[in-house]
Structure formats: C-alpha cells, structure tokens
Specification:
- The complex is a heterodimer of chains A (about 240) and B (about 180).
- Chain A is α/β, with parallel strands linked by helices and about 240 residues long.
- Chain A has two domains: about 150 residues, 3-Layer(aba) Sandwich (Rossmann fold); about 70 residues.
- In chain A, about 55% of the residues lie in helices and about 10% in strands.
- Chain A is built from twelve helices and five strands.
- A five-stranded parallel β-sheet of chain A has the order 2-3-4-1-5, with helices on both faces.
- In chain A, helix 1 crosses helix 2, helix 3 packs parallel to helix 4 and helix 10 crosses helix 11.
- The termini of chain B are far apart.
- The radius of gyration of chain B is 25 Å and the shape is flat.
- With about 180 residues, chain B is mainly alpha-helical.
- In chain B, a hairpin with a 5-residue loop joins strand 5 and strand 6.
- Chain B folds into three domains: about 60 residues, Orthogonal Bundle (Arc Repressor Mutant, subunit A); about 55 residues, Arc Repressor Mutant, subunit A (Orthogonal Bundle), CATH 1.10.10; about 40 residues.
- Chain B has seven helices and six strands, in the order H-E-H-H-E-E-H-E-H-H-E-E-H.
- The chains are: A alpha/beta (about 240), B mainly alpha (about 180).
- Chains A and B meet through helix 2 of A and helix 4 and helix 5 of B.
C-alpha cells in the first residue's frame, strides 16, 4: 500500500525569517556594547499575511522575550499596565508615572527584548512611551506593524534617530514555496506547479500554508506519486475554479 | 541517548564525539568528515557509522541539512520546551497543536498531552476543533504534574491487571473445589 503524504507543521527558514534573525543578531550585538551609538529600536513591517507576527512570536517564545499585542481600546495606562504585567509585575500601579517607573525598574534589573505588535494604530501616542523606555533602560525594543509603521517612526525624529534598522517582510519567493512544501510534506514541485503555487499565493505565507494542506489532501485522494504536477497544483490552489 | 548524556566508549559515542568536535563552531559536517574524524577505515565500519547517524537522526540528536550533511539539533530540556509552549500560549491566547509543534519545535503527542494536562487544571479550554483557548492566565507557567498522573494511571492499570488475574485464579480454584466435591 502506498504511504500517505502527511502535513508536518514546521517553522521554515524563509528569506524573511533569515533576515529577521540577522536583524535580531545585529540588535543584540549592538546592545552588548560592541558598537557605538545608542540605537536600540528595531522596526519590522510588511503587509498582512507575510508571517511577521508568527516569526516574531516564535523568536520571542524561544528567547524569553516579551511580546505585546496592542488592543485598540487601550489607554496609555492600560498600555503601561500590560507592559508591567508582561514583565512579571503582578499588581501594576494604577498611575501612569508609577507604572512607567515600575516597568523601567524591572527592565533595568532583568533586561528583556520587547516586541510591540501593531503599535502604529495609536499614532505617536505610544511611540513616545516606547522611546522613553528604550532610552532609559537601554534595552532592545522592536516595533512590528504594517506599511504605516516606518512612516510614523520617521515622522518622530527622536524615535527614528534611535532606530537601528528597519526590515520589510517581503513577499515569499519561489524558493520559499519550494522549501515550505518540501519541508512540511516531503513533496517536490514541478516547475509548472511551483509557478501556480507562487502565483496564487502572491507571496502570502498564510495562503501557501493553506494550499499546502490542500495539496496533501489532493495527493492522497488522487493517489499521486512523484513530483507535484501543474494539474495537481491547480486543484490544490483552486486555481482551476478561478479560471 | 542524548548528546549531553554520559559518554561510554562505544562505537556510537566515538561517532558522537567526532560530530561534537566537527560542529564545535556551530557548523555542519559531512559523513566523510565524520568518518575521517572518527578514524574509520574499513568500509563496513563506514556503513555502520551511517546506521548510527540514522539512529541519531531518529532520536532527534542530529538533523540532516542536505544529502550526507548533518548538523546538531538545538535540543531543549522538557522544562524549557514547556516554557516555550507556555509563552506561545500566552502570546496567542488561542493555539492549536500545530501551532505548538511549529513554534515551540515539540512533538505533536507531547504538545497534545501538555494541553490536555492544562485543560484538567482549568487553564485552557479545548474546543471541538482542537484549538485550546487560554482562560486562566497566571503569568507563571502552571506546575505540570503529568508524570505523576502517568505513574498513577500506570499503577491503576497494574492494579486492575493483578485483580483480574486474582479473580481468574479464584474462579479456577472454585471450579477445582467443585470438581473435587463431585468426585
């Protein structure tokens, strides 16, 4: 009996993941005092679906970093309270000044890399808080967001001058599609299949993942063996339905 | 059998030492390099070495970078793995087993077992689609007593097996007594 193809979830080192790792290494290197200057801020941006949050969360989880996903309804105090809570302060103060100094004290005692997701939704309001924390604690702060984030940071000279580097999450390349499908399923794509997968996804890693899972079902149900053909890829991507 | 375990002077350990020496700088190594480093000269020993490399790979000690090229995996202790899973759960609030496998690099069974333990402790609620939602965020990772539970289950199983055996002996004895009476 033919062995069934399985989808094994795996964190694949795509071009964006590698670039992000380089950014983090460079920030850590700068923090360790090997370089001059006090740039401690990082900016990671890109369109939705390129795998920013997942990459950042994976790095944060494996490196004991703090990841804060902002909520639209938060006030400045809520934002500071969340920072305190994530830094291990069980009962954050109910005043902004105290909450800020508590967070700062915690960062000075136990420095941790901090990530803020979708901070651009709040305009300049929270950027100033992050800048103050970065300046006073000397810690590493990475802001993650969509296209508006670098513009917003550039507008604020004090923030931009402290930004070590910005990194854009680019659309997935054909080589990323090949790596992803091969590493998660063991399947190999023909040139035609690769063009279909890449074209349909538009470089969106979420769509690549969805189509990879579809591909496994299609290959198993059609009992296909060998390289994935263009026809199988079309069925998996539902490209045939789109015409 | 792990890379950090006690080192015996077996063939496998000879290979292991060679890999450690070659990958000390965090680099990869080829089977030819390993063979040279371990002073393997006979073709049958080379074949045996390939088998050992395969075992290491199955045990998760090594990963194959490409054909004939290997690298040491970044193995984490179970406690560290749980911490990573806990961080992923806190960050995402809603996770699937696939998320934990992908982001924390753990085995599917281990992730599932961990989530079920947390569900028993009332920390997460597992939905019908298998996704676990964090319902009690205690900042610190809850103490996982999965080993104790496993041992309890094992003891319970043994107890049941023994009592079943005793019952069958008793039934046999009764039958024997009845047969003796009839004689």
């Amino acid at each position: 009996m033919e062995k069934k193809v399985q989808f094994s979830p795996r964190f694949v080192n795509t071009r964006n993941v590698r670039s992000f790792a380089v950014l983090m290494d460079a920030l850590m290197f700068a923090k360790s005092g090997h370089t001059d200057g006090d740039e401690r801020l990082g900016c990671v941006w890109g369109r939705a679906g390129r795998g920013k949050t997942r990459t950042v969360q994976t790095w944060a989880a494996n490196n004991d970093a703090v990841f804060i996903e902002t909520v639209r309804s938060w006030s400045e105090l809520d934002f500071l309270k969340k920072i305190c809570l994530e830094l291990g302060i069980r009962n954050p103060a109910g005043r902004r000044g105290k909450a800020f100094s508590d967070a700062l004290d915690s960062l000075l005692i136990n420095p941790r890399v901090m990530f803020f997701d979708e901070i651009e939704r709040f305009g300049q309001k929270y950027l100033e808080i992050v800048r103050d924390l970065a300046k006073l604690s000397g810690g590493i702060f990475v802001l993650v967001g969509e296209e508006e984030l670098p513009h917003l940071m550039r507008q604020n000279r004090r923030v931009w001058s402290r930004t070590y580097r910005e990194m854009e999450f680019l659309p997935a390349e054909p080589s990323d599609v090949v790596s992803y499908i091969n590493q998660t399923t063991g399947l190999k794509l023909s040139t035609e299949a690769l063009a279909i997968f890449h074209g349909v996804s538009g470089g969106d890693i979420r769509i690549i993942r969805r189509d990879t899972i579809n591909l496994v079902h299609v290959v198993n149900s059609m009992e296909r063996t060998g390289d994935v053909t263009g026809e199988t890829a079309k069925i998996a991507c539902k490209a045939a339905l789109k015409g | 059998m792990t890379m950090g375990g006690p080192q015996k002077s077996s063939f496998a350990n000879k290979i292991r030492t060679a890999i450690h020496e070659l990958t000390a700088a965090g680099t990869e190594c080829s089977t030819t390099n390993i063979s040279h480093q371990a002073f393997i000269q006979k073709p049958e020993d080379h074949k045996r070495m390939l088998g050992v490399l395969c075992d290491f790979r199955k045990a998760g000690e090594l990963e194959r970078v490409s054909l004939g090229v290997y690298a040491l995996t970044n193995r984490k202790k179970p406690e560290e793995k749980r911490q990573v899973m806990w961080r992923v759960l806190r960050m995402r609030r809603l996770v699937t087993i696939d998320d934990l496998v992908e982001m924390a690099g753990v085995h599917r069974d281990y992730a599932g077992e961990w989530l079920r333990t947390l569900e028993k402790q009332g920390v997460v609620r597992i939905g019908t689609n298998g996704a676990a939602r964090l319902i009690k965020d205690s900042l610190e990772m809850p103490e996982v007593t999965d080993n104790a539970e496993k041992l309890r289950a094992l003891r319970e199983k043994k107890k049941k097996a023994l009592s079943a055996a005793l019952n069958s002996i008793e039934i046999g004895m009764d039958k024997a007594r009845a047969a003796l009476k009839d004689l």
